[in-house]
């Protein structure tokens, strides 16, 4: 199976505090990988290592390597902007920009210097269709994105992300701020998107992880306790701590 | 828990006493404004009424007149209104971009220590009394304007000019717009910035396309307060305006006259119509500020909704 990321001996420190300890993992292409674990276990922190969003946090230090296509993304040669166009991200809280729906989706391509109106329209339409939002918003593309419902806003954020045609989409608890119906729509969407993209999702919900993911990593106190095929993790966990967590004994 | 009924009753009484106390304070504060407007209005309107003791003034001659000469008893403020608009908006045009970019630098770009120092400087600038700005303008800005005018081969009245007024006002409203812009930029949701960066936008692109756009409503509020200060500043402006007798003034090296300087000049040495007419000018100034605030607020609403 092709890998998307190879993580080797990754340590992460916030000042003196170690938040991630010796992470080793291979993340596969065109699969959905879920990170589960209790709050503060480091799953979101690890996710943010994959597109270097942790660079924005002061006092954050990283040791070890994350290879993408054979190149360490933490080497000085890596261009962060280039990395982030290939590794997109969807956040916990829907965060559309205070501009029109069209401009939201066109934002990424425009930042890369694309100005041709026709080409932009094609990209926006395609991305909105892929995000299963087009039918709902096609008549009001020029209206503010802030007028959409929470679930629509989150699908807009996904559309905004896939407009860049990334290879990987990182999702940081994308449904935790949404109601069950909107959540179901996003989960359906993830199912569709995995044909074209590698998806890595952090989730609080174990049911969600078992429903949508192919692989699951269980994080605890900054370590990866178990990483395997989702079916195996949930049916026959190897580690006692994983078993305790997924059966609801803690967390 | 055993509830003490007497105690509850007492609390209720205290609640209602405080309610009336706060209401009294609010009424007292707002009544000052009402009193002030009423006083200026009755005083200001009096010269236009028949039976005015120093001779009735024609309201339209006053409002649209292009000459203001106390010595001849001609009081026309039409050109002064235009002058006031010119100097205030020119100051805003100069100061606005500088202020917004400074605020962006302080919040988003400068290292922490420098940012703190600069923010303190901006706050200090806001607290300098206008008379000090006036002395500075009279001593420094007029000198610069004079030299600049000589370069163009124009002579000035010792540097007192429209340009000097504009530069002075631009400096004076800079801290107001900057501090409000700082607050507005600080209030922008960090999630938006992160979303932009995660889409592969650079820091500069994020600052201009996301941060400033998201903060525009607050920044605009800063501009409104700034122009309010530019309209209302009297002391400092009077020290470099030159008080021209007719106009309007469009030449930046020519002297000018604003509504505030007209009200201030020789206030204590005069009486009769010349004294009363200043209240009329004050009334005009209040209307000018009210109208321009109203228009800017409409624009702000439109801009903010985009």
TrEMBL record, chain A:
Compartment(s) where it occurs, according to its Swiss-Prot or TrEMBL record: Cell inner membrane
Domain ABC transporter: 5-246
Gene3D superfamilies: P-loop containing nucleotide triphosphate hydrolases (3.40.50.300)
Listed GO CC annotations: plasma membrane
UniProt membrane topology term: Peripheral membrane protein
GO BP annotations listed: phosphate ion transmembrane transport
SUPFAM superfamilies assigned: P-loop containing nucleoside triphosphate hydrolases
Keyword tags: ATP-binding, Cell membrane, Membrane, Nucleotide-binding, Phosphate transport, Translocase, Transport
Pfam families, A to Z: ABC_tran (PF00005)
Single GO molecular function: phosphate transmembrane transporter activity
UniProt cross-references to PANTHER family, sorted A to Z: ABC TRANSPORTER I FAMILY MEMBER 17
Role summary: Part of the ABC transporter complex PstSACB involved in phosphate import. Responsible for energy coupling to the transport system.
Protein name (Swiss-Prot/TrEMBL): Phosphate transport system ATP-binding protein
Species name: Anaerorhabdus furcosa
Automatic annotation (TrEMBL), chain B:
Alphabetized CDD domains for the sequence: TM_PBP2
Topology within the bilayer: Multi-pass membrane protein
Entry's Gene Ontology BP terms: phosphate ion transport
Transmembrane annotation, as ranges: 20-41, 74-107, 119-144, 150-174, 210-231, 277-296
Taxonomy, superkingdom: Bacteria
Protein's UniProt keywords contain Cell membrane: yes
UniProt key word Repeat: no
Stored PANTHER family: PHOSPHATE TRANSPORT SYSTEM PERMEASE PROTEIN PST (PTHR30425), PHOSPHATE TRANSPORT SYSTEM PERMEASE PROTEIN PSTC (PTHR30425:SF1)
Function in brief: Part of the binding-protein-dependent transport system for phosphate; probably responsible for the translocation of the substrate across the membrane.
Family listed: Belongs to the binding-protein-dependent transport system permease family. CysTW subfamily.
Name the UniProt record assigns to this protein: Phosphate transport system permease protein
Organism lineage: Bacteria, Bacillati, Bacillota, Erysipelotrichia, Erysipelotrichales
